[in-house]
């Protein structure tokens, strides 16, 4: 079977020969960078995910990943209706932010009905609402050299209690359908779906849609994040960093 990664390996010479012209510099792309370049050269960097009518929403929308972080810290926030929760925005930004749910809801909102495609093989259609990630990043002001946005979450895994994390590049971060959703199907997110805030990056598979987002960090490189592959499942299970659909 031909996969994106197989295509990179078998066609790498052709791709890398062309990337010099694309970048105007004699650089050698990593496998992941070449993968992203190849995918976007086919699909178009600004292409939109399909949006659906209200009557096309799924009657049942399964939870993906963690159903409840169930840590003392998260339980305390949930017990208070997330009134004390704050989204921290930092790293390579000019103005670090600490935003409440009320402040996020006061920003211009985007609502979209899209299909969630899970790596486990199921799909569902739901309505999501929240501010575009772009708005929050512009409020913070990215510094020169920032290339990736990392999402640090409240759910933890394993005996070592590793917090979930994911990352996207600036192309996806500034995509118009990439939002920080606080509402699903016209009601605030439930715990199973990532309350109080989750990422929706509609042109990627479900594991990229980080739930229980606590902190957003702008970075120049993914090398210092986990094991350096850009996400929890990418690091421990070999998932693709660019899960484009």
UniProtKB/TrEMBL annotation:
Domain Oxidoreductase molybdopterin-binding: 83-219
Annotated TM spans: none
InterPro entries: OxRdtase_Mopterin-bd_dom, OxRdtase_Mopterin-bd_sf
Gene3D superfamilies: Oxidoreductase, molybdopterin-binding domain (3.90.420.10)
Database matches in Pfam families: Oxidored_molyb
Protein name in UniProt: DMSO/TMAO reductase YedYZ molybdopterin-dependent catalytic subunit
Record organism: Sphingomonas kyeonggiensis
